[in-house]
Amino acid sequence: MRLDETHDPARKSWIESANEPGCEFPIQNLPFGIFRRKRSKEAPRGGVAIGDRILDLAAVGVKTGSTLNRLAAAGGTARKALRALLSRALSDPKQKKRFAKHLVPMAQAELFLPVAIGDYSDFFTSLHHATNAGRMFRPDNPLLPNYKWLPIGYHGRASSVVVSGTPVVRPSGQRKPPETPAPSFGPSRRLDYEAEIAFVVGPGNPPGKPIRVRRALDHVFGVVLLNDWSARDLQAWEYQPLGPFLAKSFATTISPWIVTLEALEPFRVPAFVREAGDPAPLAYLHDEADQREGMFAIEIEMHLRSAKMRAAKMRSARLSRGNYATSYWTPAQIVAHHASNGCNLRPGDLLGSGTISGPAPDSVGSLLELTMGGKQPIRLPSGEQRGFLEDGDEVIECGRCAREGFATIGFGEAAGIVKPALVVQSVA
Ligand code: MN
Fold it and tell me: For a designed S-S bond to 322, which of 3, 289, 363, 399 qualifies (C-beta 3.0 to 4.6 A apart)?
């Protein structure tokens, strides 16, 4: 752990809301995003979340433009210096006069995708999720033989990554239940979410030049929450032999605030402890320091609020709570593996963790697992039942890091409401 004065739990901000217990954005967090005042003609620009405010980064002379890609490209040393400067500015009461005029209340702000995402890849790093999902398709042989040798992933779709609050239209596609001889085309009947986090790539690598696992975290800017919306019926029919395609490319929701690696420093934990008999990672995936403290303990919760619950002003219901630390592969390993063939990662690229499921029944990150493929529906506080998502359902992902002796930090949320499928004209 590399701690400095920006992690000091005793440090307070002159913005009172940042010091309140339960605040997601205390001065120890300082995540970056892109914002503008609602209903304004202002250009979207970079800001840092502090309490219930956003500080315009222009206040410290940083002109980001409408994405944080340049800040991502600048790398860890520049980012650390900016964090130290922001931490001092927002904690020293003498700076209040100078900076207060650059604050915008979050309630009055519109938030955008924090980076322009050139490429998005999604991994499958939770052993529990891989085992649970594999068991549904292959009861005797849930885990394929490559799983413990390499971090499994696929190339996702960057064009449909949206920021929290964007509605998600139910996808249509080919559905073929096992009992029918031929598929039909229509709205998905098995729409699901996946609780994930994603790493936003920092500087990245030129084509042909791999990234060493030892240096891999130098290429990570920070972490956002990610909901990989998935149409299970489309997926089951299309996924062999080339993997997910239209079942996942219709929408992926991320949270607007990038929590930096520096903010996550106090929450480092050891890598997954492999069972005796598991293969040791190959040399290009192995680093002592990474094994010792290359994982991050990030609690992830999924909540659901149906249209009926919203109308009755009921709170959302928590469906699960898991922890990223239970994943089999570390972020350094997925970065090193992704670049190991010479594939270039670019600033702002998104690397999803895969569904985060833990060993406990209430720690699984998808309805597929929670309801056993829809066979054991869950009951909502409104009395409704869910096997998969219904139109009008809002899925809300949130996350936090908490550790004795440190300030608790939050991630904001990645939320979206499911809208009805668009009517598809049949072609004669
Ligand atoms: Mn996924």
Answer: 363
